[in-house]
């Protein structure tokens, strides 16, 4: 976004806390139909906390937008149009923060309002950080339980980076990390970031002799869909090779939907994959990962993202040892 919250450094950590509490409140409400009416929910402890967190999140978004917009207007007036003054001219032309692109569009076309910009920012901020963090955690856990697969990832990294493990990861490198991408996809199959999605039916339809009426809400359990042995033989096993191009032939296009599907699929799925490749590559270039708990001891809990009840215990050892 081009704006540093510095949450890990202790600044604006209430934003991250609010996002987690919003997820907990949402699930608490979903499981209790008597809390569906707003006039009841808002008087409960969860409801009051939920509304307070909504205000906190929106206020921070407005603050970021206001500061960034003012900065862009002032720089434009002063003739300082370069957004990255410490980089070369060619790099400045190529790179712009997503928030700056949105605000540029807003300044050129006022019909794209600040509220519209805020909604896009909320989507990326709210839906884009916890999902990616959990996917990274589960992928590292799966690699830590499967050392032979981890070794194959390291061999791919060695082939690409050679002895220069400290160099930056470029776009071309990301396209070559094909096995690592399969590893991420298989981790998302076993532990999808979003364990379920819901859709409102615009018209009635029949499935398995059951009629779903128009206006009804269908909940798709992605975590169960990905365990179908017809699409994924031995579904409990971690097998990245499932996602080799030749092995995906004939598989139903909706058998694997970690980012949902259709017109309301995840807007940031390509960005998420690039982000995960970069983070995992940096870790696995330097460290060997070992998972300390077996799968039957790792219990997940229902939430907006697939989370573990107890911390995932991982050991990191330098690769040169």
Automatic annotation (TrEMBL):
Signal peptide: none annotated. Keywords: Endoplasmic reticulum, Heme, Iron, Membrane, Metal-binding, Monooxygenase, Oxidoreductase. It comes from the Eukaryota. InterPro entries: Cyt_P450, Cyt_P450_CS, Cyt_P450_E_grp-I, Cyt_P450_sf, Cytochrome_P450_Monoox. GO terms for molecular function: heme binding; iron ion binding; monooxygenase activity; oxidoreductase activity, acting on paired donors, with incorporation or reduction of molecular oxygen. GO terms for cellular component: endoplasmic reticulum membrane. Its cofactor is heme. Its main location: endoplasmic reticulum. It is found in: Endoplasmic reticulum membrane. PROSITE patterns: CYTOCHROME_P450. Gene3D superfamilies: Cytochrome P450 (1.10.630.10). Heme binds at residue 266. PANTHER family: CYTOCHROME P450 4C3-RELATED, CYTOCHROME P450 FAMILY 4. Belongs to the cytochrome P450 family. This is Cytochrome P450 4C1.
């Amino acid at each position: 976004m081009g704006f540093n919250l510095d949450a890990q450094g202790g600044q604006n950590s209430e934003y991250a806390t609010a996002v987690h509490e919003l997820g907990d409140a949402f699930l608490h409400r979903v499981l209790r139909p008597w809390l569906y009416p707003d006039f009841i929910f808002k008087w409960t402890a969860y409801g009051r906390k939920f509304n307070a967190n909504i205000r906190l999140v929106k206020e921070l978004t407005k603050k970021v937008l206001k500061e960034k917009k003012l900065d862009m207007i002032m720089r434009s007036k002063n003739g300082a149009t370069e957004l990255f003054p410490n980089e070369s001219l060619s790099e400045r032309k190529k790179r712009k923060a997503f928030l700056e692109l949105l605000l540029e569009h807003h300044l050129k076309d006022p019909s794209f309002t600040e509220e519209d910009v805020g909604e896009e920012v909320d989507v990326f901020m709210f839906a884009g950080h916890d999902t990616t963090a959990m996917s990274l955690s589960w992928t590292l856990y799966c690699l830590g339980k499967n050392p032979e697969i981890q070794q194959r990832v390291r061999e791919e990294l060695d082939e690409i980076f050679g002895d220069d493990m400290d160099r930056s990861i470029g776009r071309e490198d990301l396209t070559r990390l094909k096995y690592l991408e399969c590893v991420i996809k298989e981790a998302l199959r076993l532990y999808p970031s979003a364990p379920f999605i819901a859709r409102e039916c615009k018209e009635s339809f029949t499935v398995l002799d059951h009629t779903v009426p128009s206006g009804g809400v269908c909940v798709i359990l992605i975590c169960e869909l990905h365990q179908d042995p017809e699409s994924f033989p031995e579904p409990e096993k971690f097998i990245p090779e499932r996602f080799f191009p030749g092995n995906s032939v004939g598989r139903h296009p909706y058998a694997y939907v970690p980012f949902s599907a259709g017109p309301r699929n995840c807007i940031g799925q390509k960005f998420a994959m690039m982000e995960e490749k970069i983070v995992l590559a940096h870790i696995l270039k330097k460290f060997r990962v070992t998972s300390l708990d077996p799968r039957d001891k790792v219990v997940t809990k229902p939430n907006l993202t697939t989370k573990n009840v107890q911390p995932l215990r991982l050991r990191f050892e330098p690769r040169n040892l």
